[in-house]
Write a structure and sequence with these properties.
Helix 1 crosses helix 4 and helix 3 packs across helix 5. The chain is 33% helix and 17% strand. By secondary structure, it is an alpha+beta fold. It has an 8-stranded antiparallel sheet.
Length: 293
């Protein structure tokens, strides 16, 4: 696993903020970031969902401690929103993705992944309790450049398949998570000084930019030290070294459930032949979903 330095040049940070594109991340949904749905339930109960697909049946468990995602998912299931949607993005040893309503009647070769109900959901990233182990259910989203709050798609979700890690990989993962946390803090601090950075750039004040960058690095390190370093739990290590997953997504996307039955069906979908857009060459659909009482 490659470890990337958490700090970037001020010029790059500023340009990223200024040019903030509306283009969606390749792995997420292009849905407008509108006001969130109506007030959510505070119920902490988990919910089971039976998913009937053209490849077989899957049972999902929605976590009770991600109530906004749980309640939204249940509402869409009860409205038959997911009936006939395709698994439009399938990548072996990574994940299978679905939930785009535009996929229901999409012809072969049609780019998908931009559809949804017209709203996004507040991030509910309960990490490290919930992580991207094999079988995890998580919400797709737009990338950080246009979605720094990491808000989730209103309907698109994915099920993780992933790869197994070695103990050495897990050790590197711990370093990667720490670097990600530092990068996130650094970017936030830089964002709070956006106008200052722009002004320095316009004046060509390279010395000022360098000094500001060094100050932000010190502030980042102090904040990380104060909150404690990100650690890998024994549960995470056990899961990633025995069943696998996609740990590079941890802390970045909301994990709101898991597969409790039917991973063989997930594996069958994962192994389907796909086209250059990662869409299965033979359509695989969700036929129906229902809440299991």
């Amino acid at each position: 696993m490659k470890i990337v330095p958490y700090f970037a040049t001020m010029a790059l940070v500023a340009l990223t903020m200024i040019s903030c594109s509306k283009k969606a991340d390749a792995q997420s949904s292009n849905i407008n970031n509108t006001e969130n749905m109506t007030e959510q339930s505070t119920d902490t109960a988990s919910v089971k969902i039976a998913v009937k697909t053209s490849a077989g049946d899957i049972t999902l468990l929605l976590y009770g401690d991600t109530p906004k995602h749980r309640d939204n998912f249940v509402r869409l299931v009860e409205e038959s929103y997911y009936d006939s949607v395709l698994f439009h993005r399938v990548i072996k040893n990574f994940m299978i993705q679905t939930g785009d309503p535009e996929s229901k009647t999409a012809l072969a070769g049609t780019p998908l992944g931009a559809g949804g109900p017209g709203y996004t959901i507040d991030a509910e990233i309960v990490f490290p309790r919930h992580f991207h182990k094999r079988g995890a259910l998580a919400a797709a989203r737009q990338g950080d450049a246009v979605n720094p709050q990491k808000r989730s798609s209103g309907s698109q979700f994915y099920i993780v398949t992933g790869n197994k890690l070695t103990d050495g990989d897990v050790d590197n993962l711990a370093m990667h998570l720490l670097n990600n946390r530092k990068q996130s803090i650094f970017n936030r601090l830089a964002g709070e000084r956006r106008q200052t950075i722009i002004d320095m750039q316009s004046r060509g004040d390279r010395a000022g930019l360098q000094a500001l960058q060094e100050e932000l690095i010190k502030l980042t390190e102090a904040e990380v030290e104060a909150e404690g370093k990100v650690t890998i739990s024994e549960e995470m290590r056990q899961a990633y070294t025995t069943v696998g997953g996609a740990p590079h997504l941890d802390g970045e996307y909301t994990v709101f459930g898991e597969v409790i039955e039917g991973m063989d069906v997930v594996e069958a979908i994962e192994n389907a032949a796909t086209d250059k857009l990662d869409r299965p060459k033979e359509d695989i659909r969700i036929i129906s979903m229902k809440v299991v009482k």
